[in-house]
């Protein structure tokens, strides 16, 4: 007698119409052994270097590892796509962003979006759809959206549910100073500034599916090992002699590089230098908070 796990996918015997012919059947022995490629702990240093080199052309430089994770659409992690945007002075970068929202950080330069002007160190959120960014000085931005999540379901964003949100660099510094003057307890995951908006204040997210935090690490200190079910995309903003340890492997930092922490992998962050480390982290955490599956856990 055949083990049910060895049965191939079953088709209907005599389908009466095209809809019935599309039916497929699995069983409890073979339905739960789907094999997916793991999410690599990627390092996009080469992409960052191409975008940051003086004279780089206006355009989008994606951090795409869709081939490694088996996605038929560009993706940095299964549900998020990060990229660098280069905009030469006096030029406009315009593109259609098939996402519900686009998180941005200005690494260099000045310019404008429809609702505000931006400068180095600013963070912002734009609704998905048509995006137009104009630079008044040569600029490089870091942008993260949830295009892969929509592509997976074959969706397109409807009427914009999000509105632009702008976090100027000076206000970010003021907020960091405020929390830096406070105490914390053993259950607090380091000293980090979490970005949200009036529309999602109750959820502490920046979009319904994505969270954004600016994490800091004092000189010669480490953030203890932990794990969570959300994938994380990290942008290095500041630090010397820093690295992350992901699944037991050290990943050295370089300025403005993009790193990936796969979902569920144990990881920690380490500052071996003499200046405060800063790193911006986007996670698909909003989705996990909503599903009650975040699974955050300290491991030491």
UniProtKB/TrEMBL annotation:
GO terms for molecular function: dioxygenase activity. Gene3D superfamilies: Jelly Rolls. Transmembrane segments: none annotated. Keywords: Dioxygenase, Oxidoreductase. Residues 216-282 form the Cupin type-2 domain. The keyword Oxidoreductase applies. This is Gentisate 1,2-dioxygenase. It holds the Pfam family Cupin_2.
């Amino acid at each position: 007698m055949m083990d049910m796990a060895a049965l191939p996918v079953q088709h209907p015997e005599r389908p009466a119409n095209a809809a019935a012919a599309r039916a497929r059947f699995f069983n409890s022995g073979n339905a739960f052994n789907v094999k997916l490629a793991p999410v690599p702990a990627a390092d996009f240093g080469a992409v960052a270097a191409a975008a940051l080199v003086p004279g780089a052309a206006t355009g989008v430089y994606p951090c795409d590892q869709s081939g490694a994770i088996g996605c038929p659409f560009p993706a940095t992690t299964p549900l998020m796509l990060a990229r660098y945007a280069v905009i030469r002075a006096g030029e406009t970068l315009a593109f259609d962003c098939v996402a519900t929202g686009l998180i941005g950080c200005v690494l260099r330069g000045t310019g404008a979006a429809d609702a505000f002007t931006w400068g180095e160190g600013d963070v912002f959120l734009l609704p998905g759809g048509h995006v137009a960014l104009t630079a008044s000085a040569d600029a490089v931005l870091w942008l993260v959206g949830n295009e892969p999540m929509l592509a997976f379901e074959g969706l397109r964003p409807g009427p914009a549910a999000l509105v632009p949100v702008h976090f100027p660099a000076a206000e970010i510094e003021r907020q960091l100073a405020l929390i830096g003057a406070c105490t914390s307890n053993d259950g607090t995951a380091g000293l980090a500034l979490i970005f949200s908006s009036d529309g999602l204040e109750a959820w502490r997210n920046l979009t319904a599916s994505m969270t954004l935090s600016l994490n800091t690490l004092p000189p010669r200190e480490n953030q203890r090992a932990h794990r969570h079910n959300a994938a994380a995309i990290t942008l290095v903003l500041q630090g010397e002699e820093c690295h992350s340890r992901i699944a037991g492997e050290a990943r050295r930092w370089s300025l403005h590089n993009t790193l990936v922490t796969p979902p569920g992998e144990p990881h920690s962050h380490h500052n071996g230098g003499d200046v405060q480390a800063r790193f911006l982290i986007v996670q698909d955490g909003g989705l996990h908070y909503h599903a009650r599956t975040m699974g955050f856990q300290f491991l030491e």
